[in-house]
């Protein structure tokens, strides 16, 4: 060990000189010997010693215990106490914030050197640990996600500020409480309160990814969707000593994902399913009928009569409101199991499931025609509306679901040709007439 600067605090001069000589023989620099507390504090500030060798007494007027505490905590310097009896040290430690380094008197030179080295090493280890702890806490506080640490019983030992913010609990309130009490998680799909997650990780020792169906119920009863994981914590020997929960608020992300899905499958203007979603549902019904031949369904293709003139006369904004009203009327004519979709501009497709025969589909077409008879008002103008509807039934021998949509479109075109404001059921004659028009 290199030469140390040591401050000796000893009230008996002869003993102080003996200690100084002993320390100098060991190669250490010994500062002036002080005989009172004020002198000790002053000397601390002057020389900044590496160690204070202190004969602490429990008797007399001098407040040695308080001085030792100041040296160890305020100046962060290790104290090595001289004592004649171990029992005196135990009484002193009850009044201190941390344990003392001590050596029994009378002091042998070799024993003193070992005691000094141990006191300095212990202090350096403590200092390094404190620095690591400070760095650890700084990292936790700077993280953008919530972190909670538990023991093997699932009781909370530490929370970072993000965890406090999301749960609504402060660390002081949460420490020693069970994780399930502070991190109240409900599966939104099942409505079940999940209390066993940390216990599961501690029992298995395996990292658990939190399902993204979990909702955190904060202290103020607000609900937050979270994502993250719970991992086991092990010591250097591999023994399990607790668990760490890392999570973050994913509410905004889930809302964005939901909006992206909606944009992909729903019409932005009317809120109806779009072509993509309609074809997906039609494919599902088509495949189901291949397994169950007794299930019948129909596709209706609808085009609003004269919409271009309305758009040109009153503008696109009025045209949009017009289409929104059409969409609402179409929805009112259908069952919840049926699907109405906007295909583009003034074209709509309707999927009617679980019908008995053609009459069920015709009834729907007639309800739609009736619903569209009521005029729509644009500014002070009363606009009469109608639609041409084509119908294709599943009873035909179709090989692809898109073929029904094609045939319903052909039948709708025939309805237009026959004078609009009517419906036409597709048959082979529709296809024959279409081929003639193409020629």
From TrEMBL:
InterPro entries on file: Biofilm_reg_signaling, CheY-like_superfamily, GGDEF_dom, Nucleotide_cyclase, PAS, PAS-assoc_C, PAS-like_dom_sf, PAS_fold
PROSITE patterns named in the record: GGDEF, PAC, PAS, RESPONSE_REGULATORY
Boundaries of every Response regulatory domain copy: 5-120
Domain PAS: 132-205
Pfam families: GGDEF, PAS
Residues of the PAC domain: 210-262
Annotated transmembrane regions: none
Domain GGDEF: start-end pairs: 295-428
Domain of life of the organism encoding this protein: Bacteria
Listed PANTHER family: DIGUANYLATE CYCLASE DGCE-RELATED (PTHR44757:SF4), DIGUANYLATE CYCLASE DGCP (PTHR44757)
Protein's recorded name: REC domain-containing diguanylate cyclase
Species name: Brasilonema octagenarum UFV-OR1
């Amino acid at each position: 060990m290199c030469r140390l600067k040591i401050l000796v605090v000893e009230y008996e001069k002869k003993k102080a000189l003996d200690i100084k000589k002993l320390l100098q023989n060991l190669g250490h620099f010994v500062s002036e010997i002080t005989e009172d507390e004020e002198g000790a504090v002053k000397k601390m500030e002057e020389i900044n010693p590496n160690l204070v060798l202190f004969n602490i007494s429990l008797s007399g007027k001098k407040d040695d215990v308080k001085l030792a505490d100041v040296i160890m905590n305020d100046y962060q310097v290790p104290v090595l106490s001289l004592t004649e009896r171990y029992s005196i040290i135990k009484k002193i430690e009850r009044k201190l914030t941390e344990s003392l380094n001590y050596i029994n008197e009378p002091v042998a030179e070799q024993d003193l050197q070992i005691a000094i080295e141990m006191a300095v090493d212990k202090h350096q280890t403590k200092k390094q640990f404190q620095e690591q702890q400070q760095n650890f806490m700084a990292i936790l506080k700077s993280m953008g996600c919530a972190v909670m640490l538990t023991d093997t019983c699932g009781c909370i030992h530490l929370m970072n500020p993000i965890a406090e913010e999301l749960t609504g609990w402060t660390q002081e309130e949460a420490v020693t409480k069970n994780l399930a009490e502070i991190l109240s998680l409900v599966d939104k799909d099942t409505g079940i309160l999940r209390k066993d997650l940390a216990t599961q990780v501690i029992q298995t020792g395996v990292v658990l990814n939190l399902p993204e169906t979990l909702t955190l119920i904060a202290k103020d009863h607000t609900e937050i969707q979270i994502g993250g994981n719970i991992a086991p914590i092990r010591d250097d020997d591999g023994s399990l000593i607790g668990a760490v929960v890392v999570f973050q608020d994913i509410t905004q992300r889930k809302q964005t994902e939901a909006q992206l899905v909606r944009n992909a499958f729903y019409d932005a203007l009317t809120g109806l399913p779009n072509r993509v979603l309609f074809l997906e549902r039609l494919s599902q019904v088509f495949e189901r009928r291949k397994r169950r031949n007794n299930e019948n369904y129909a596709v209706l293709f609808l085009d609003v009569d004269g919409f271009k003139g309305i758009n040109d006369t009153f503008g696109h904004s009025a045209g949009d409101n017009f289409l929104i009203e059409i969409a609402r009327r179409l929805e009112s004519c259908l069952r919840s199991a049926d699907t109405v979709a906007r295909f583009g501009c003034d074209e709509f497709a309707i999927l009617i499931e679980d019908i008995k025969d053609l009459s069920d589909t015709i009834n729907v077409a007639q309800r739609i025609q009736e619903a569209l008879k009521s005029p729509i008002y644009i500014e002070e103008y009363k606009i009469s509306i109608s639609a041409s509807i084509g119908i294709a039934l599943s009873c035909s021998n179709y090989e692809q679901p898109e073929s029904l949509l094609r045939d319903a479109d052909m039948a709708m075109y025939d309805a237009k040709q026959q004078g609009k404001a009517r419906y036409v059921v597709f048959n082979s004659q529709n296809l024959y007439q279409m081929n003639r028009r193409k020629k």
